Prior knowledge:
Blueprint: E1 11-14, E2 31-36, H1 39-43, E3 50-53, E4 69-75, H2 84-94, E5 95-105, H3 116-119, H4 123-135, E6 144-147, H5 151-154, E7 162-165
Parallel strand pairs: 1-2, 1-4, 2-3, 4-5
Antiparallel strand pairs: 5-7, 6-7
Amino acid sequence: VKVFPEYPDARILDICASHISHYPEQKSWSHMSITGMNEFELKNNQQADDYVVRNLNTIPELPFETASFDIVTCTVSFDYLNKPLEVMKEVGRVLKPGGSVILSTSNRCFPTKAVKIWLNTSDTEHILIYGSYIHFTDMFQPPESIDITPAVARMGFGDPMYIITA
């Protein structure tokens, strides 16, 4: 996704993060905060400037001020949230006007952690589910999806990958 170069001074929030944020190696933003459930993983994230331990399934509130980020991301983890619409409303709250949300999804997951609807739907339906979370907050422009599946995955040697943005 070519969003990062558009925000050279961006403040970014990565939710449901771990030891890696899957961002470009070349830093093109000013500050990155992360939140997730595992403090050991969060403090070992080399790209993060700061972190907050938070289980969004227990407390679906982002511990940040309103309009404090230019971009909020979530890499292949929104399918683990049991209150996704509440969390998406929080994403809208912490984004600055004109900010972007970037979600990614694949067909891989931990079945014991994913919400039931995720396990019973297809890749296309996963995109629609994420898009509906964005749409029904009434806080974003219409979502768009991008298929960034590698060519080898299209031949059956890997996993699909999709980006949903608004």
